[in-house]
C-alpha cells in the first residue's frame, strides 16, 4: 500500500473503529483488528464468545465507500450473514477473507452512542496544552436523542451547555458549534442544570 489516499483512508478507518474495541459492532461480534491491504481495508471481527474461534476478515475496497459508512455496513453484514459477500473467501493468517460489495449494502443506522461519539471526537480533536483552554469539557446523553455538551467559550466566564439533536448533528452544525455558542438568539437560562450557567439550544438549527 503506497497510495497516499489509501494510507489516509486506512488511518481514518482505524481511528474511527477504535471505539469498537470496547463496544460490540452488534451483539456477539467484536472488533479484533483493522489491517491494510492493497486498495482495501480488512476488518477482523470475531463472532461468538469462544476465544479459540478465528476472526473473519471483511475486506472493503478503499474507493467504494467513505470511512464513516463502514460501521453501518459491518452491522448490516453481521446481522444478515452471507448475503453481501463478493467472491469466494480466501484465507490470510488463519482468517477467512470475505470481500464485500459496499455499493450493494444499505448501512444499518448508527446507534445513539455512535452518533454522540462522532460529535465528541470532532469537538475534542485539538489536544489540551498549557497555552490553550479546552473547548469541550463534558457531555451528557439525554432522553429523546439529545446530547448536552459542556464547553468553555471566550465570551463567557462560566461553563456553557450546548444542546444538540443527535440525528441532526451534521458536519456543518458540529463545525459551527464554537461560533454559535456566542450567539444570543440561541441562549437560554438553565435553572435545572447546576453544571452550566446557561444553555445554547441548537436542537432546531
Low-confidence stretches: 127-131
Number of helices: 4
The total strand number stands at 10
The biggest sheet, with number of strands, parallel, antiparallel or mixed sense and barrel status, is: 5 strands, mixed
How is the largest sheet built, in terms of strand order? 1-2-3-5-4
Radius of gyration: 20 Å
In helices, the fraction of residues equals 10-25%
The ordered string of helix (H) and strand (E) elements is HEEEHEEHEEEHEE
**Arithmetic mean of pLDDT:** 85
Termini separation: 42 Å
Quaternary status: single chain
Shape: elongated
Tell me what portion of residues adopts beta-strand conformation. Answer: 25-35%
Q: Strand pairing plus helix content: what structural class?
A: alpha+beta
What does this structure look like?
- The chain is of the alpha+beta class.
- Helices cover 22% and strands 33% of the residues.
- It is built from four helices and ten strands, in the order H-E-E-E-H-E-E-H-E-E-E-H-E-E.
- It has helices at residues 4-17, 70-79, 112-123, 171-180; strands at residues 29-37, 40-47, 56-61, 85-92, 95-100, 136-141, 146-153, 156-165, 187-189, 198-201.
- A hairpin with a 4-residue loop joins strand 6 (136-141) and strand 7 (146-153).
- The longest helix is centred in the first third of the chain and has 14 residues, at 4-17.
- The radius of gyration is 20 Å and the shape is elongated.
- The termini are far apart.
